[in-house]
């Protein structure tokens, strides 16, 4: 293994994916103001795919400045329904509004991943998953919110597919790793290409 590998994220799901894939890395969450960075982007570039890529690179770049020579994995995920871009709900009432907005519609999870070394972008990619939410009842929604509580506020869509959140959906088109916020297969290929992945 050549350069040290760093994951610029505190996400346990992302860390677990990398550990399960046999990678040796350290996790160093990036300390950036995502909303401020997003607001500084030109309005014409504020589509969900570009925002995800831009924030992933910003996170990796911030960490790479502190760790000379390390290869840093940056990740970000946006959720979009038509032109609307969602952010994490900060309360159960906001979570209810988010889920009511998604009910009966298809939305996208846009997961960006990149590799940055010494402030230079080596590679980046955005993978998308289409999530078809079923037309669930108000009674189901109330029970779901009550049973899952504040835990769902950690996810932009107020759901975790590995839990009861899977019951919100009729269909899903896309990669499971993308849904979890880390397009793993393209990342592993990029790491092999750059001589970092031992596999």
UniProtKB/TrEMBL annotation:
UniProt-annotated location(s): Cytoplasm
InterPro entries given in the database record: ITPase-like_fam, Maf-like
Cofactor(s) in the UniProt record: a divalent metal cation
Location of the active site: 76 (proton acceptor)
Record Pfam families: Maf
Main localization of the protein described in the UniProt heading: cytoplasm
Catalysed transformations (reactions): a 2'-deoxyribonucleoside 5'-triphosphate + H2O = a 2'-deoxyribonucleoside 5'-phosphate + diphosphate + H(+); a ribonucleoside 5'-triphosphate + H2O = a ribonucleoside 5'-phosphate + diphosphate + H(+)
Matches recorded under Gene3D superfamilies: 3.90.950.10
EC number(s) reported in the record: 3.6.1.9
Enzyme class per UniProt: hydrolase
Protein keywords: Cytoplasm, Hydrolase, Nucleotide metabolism
Task performed by this protein: Nucleoside triphosphate pyrophosphatase. May have a dual role in cell division arrest and in preventing the incorporation of modified nucleotides into cellular nucleic acids.
Family: Belongs to the Maf family.
UniProt-recorded name of the protein: Nucleoside triphosphate pyrophosphatase
Organism encoding this protein: Rhizobium rhizophilum
